[in-house]
Amino acid sequence: MPSISNKGQAMPESPIRKLVPYAEAAIKKGRKIYQLNIGQPDIKTPEKALAAVKNNDIEVLSYSHSAGFESYRNKLSQYYTNHNIDIAPDELIITTGGSEALLFTMGSICDAGDEVIIPEPFYANYNGFATSSGVTVVPVKSKIEDGFALPPISEFEKLITPKTKAILICNPGNPTGYLYTKEEIDQLAEIVKKHDLFIVADEVYREFAYDGAKHYSIMSVKGIEQNAIMIDSVSKRYSMCGARIGCLASKNKEVMSTAMKFAQARLSPPTFAQIASEAALDTPQDYFDEVISEYTTRRNLLVEGLEKIEGVKVAKPKGAFYCIAELPVKDAEDFAKWLLESFELENETVMIAPAAGFYSTPNTGLNQVRIAYVLKKENLLRALEILKAALKVYKG
Ligand SMILES: Cc1ncc(COP(=O)(O)O)c(C=O)c1O
């Protein structure tokens, strides 16, 4: 039989999706599962976005420009201006999700063997994008005790080698929910300038900042225009994960012209989804106000609920819709499997994501899980009840 590539064999499984077969088996047994494992919000997609697709009389579903519709890029540039982020339409490439923007970025700035420093725990698919691009992820550990704040900048400095090309951050963070302060972003800006590195900021959760905190974009920092690359997406902002639209933004013309070659190779981003995304930009502020208020309530409920369970430690998230919780178990993956295979409370159970897959340092985060508060309040409360009951009887 012809053999599979080394790169293919090295591709990591998604820690978020790898428990799916256990969940499917549980569902077959007739069990109800509260899914706290994935970032699929239950929030409604804005009506305007759906209507733009439904009421469309396109006769030929043609390719678009490789950088995406000009009309969409113009309007998106205006959206950034409204968020105090200065990005011109020609400093944007529309991509098939933030995922493709991350792939184009790694392809544009890294050669095989180059290193990217990432605070861990981090969005697990960064490992997959890095493997696809032959890039080595160099983790710098952030800690639950510090709420997953930016590790001391000296820790980054220790890891910089001649192969280091970039620092990649996620702000607000998946899976930590941490929102970097202006001071932290400024410190990162200083270090990338000093060492002539790129700084890639994944800002797909920009809108999700709580308690009145303001998101501070990498694109707002003066003096690092040639270093900064921003990743964005409509997936979470408008609860449009299935649209598959994101973008890559940079003021660095060489980065953009290189990324454009990757964009041309895949021809164009999806047409209908761009129509929906362009229309979504008309979503009124009260939609976001409602969504933020809903997520704040859910976060408070979840964190308070978790803190009441004996032996559970949690870092209160300031943004996005995830938190990392430390559980009184040895191996959170075994526990997550056990929840699906062997536990039920009135024929119901919960699905959580073991956090070890969000770390690249081996044997780290083994007793931690990521919980997404993407369910409505009643369901979150019930999920907490089930988790509490499960931890009471779990031996491991
Ligand atoms: C931090 C982060 N970046 C990027 C993505 C990719 O999003 P998409 O490809 O749907 O835009 C996700 C999805 O969950 C994410 O959490």
Which key phrases capture this entry?
13 strands; binds pyridoxal-5'-phosphate; alpha/beta; 396 residues; globular; 38% helix; PyrdxlP-dep_Trfase
What would you note in describing this structure?
- Keywords: Aminotransferase, Pyridoxal phosphate, Transferase.
- Belongs to the class-I pyridoxal-phosphate-dependent aminotransferase family.
- The chain is globular.
- With 396 residues, the protein is an alpha/beta fold.
- The protein has a seven-stranded mixed beta sheet with strand order 2-8-7-6-5-3-4, with helices on both faces. A four-stranded antiparallel beta sheet has the order 9-10-13-12.
- Helix 8 (182-195) links the parallel strand 5 (164-170) and strand 6.
- The protein contains 13 helices and 13 strands.
- The chain is 38% helix and 15% strand.
- The two termini are 41 Å apart.
- It has helices at residues 6-10, 20-28, 47-54, 70-82, 97-109, 125-132, 153-159, 182-195, 253-265, 271-280, 285-307, 332-341, 377-393; strands spanning 32-35, 92-95, 115-120, 136-141, 164-170, 198-202, 228-233, 246-250, 313-314, 322-326, 348-351, 353-354, 368-372.
- Helix 3 (47-54) packs antiparallel against helix 10, helix 5 (97-109) crosses helix 6 and helix 11 (285-307) packs parallel to helix 13.
- Bound molecules: pyridoxal-5'-phosphate (PLP).
- The site of pyridoxal-5'-phosphate has 13 residues, from helix 5.
